[in-house]
Amino acid sequence: MLPIQYLRRAVTGADPCKRLMAAVLQTVVDDCRGSDHRRLPGHRRAWGASRADDYLASRDHVWPFSFENLCEALSLDPVSLRQELRKDRPE
Questions:
Q1: pTM over 0.90
Q2: How many CB atoms are located within 10 Å of the residue 87 CB?
Q3: I want to staple 34 with a disulfide (CB 3.0 to 4.6 A). Which of 18, 38, 50, 55 is the partner?
Q4: Could you give the CA distance from residue 42 to residue 50 in angstroms, rounded to a whole number?
Q5: Which of 55, 51, 77 is nearest to 65 (CA)?
């Protein structure tokens, strides 16, 4: 399952807080995978990708918008999503 499919399933009919959480994760997906404009020839991975890597690696449960907490709130498996986002990254 693609990350966007995870997120779409998580926010269908969701309250505004969950939609915000999904939007944060969508930003991480864009930073990890690259949005369409980042896939243009000659475009290198943005500095946001490095920050997204750090965000994914964190096992923090204290900060409300940590990767682990967002996955839990949206009923997503953080291990599977983390693995999916780390494979086949653009350089």
A1: no
A2: 8
A3: 38
A4: 18
A5: 55
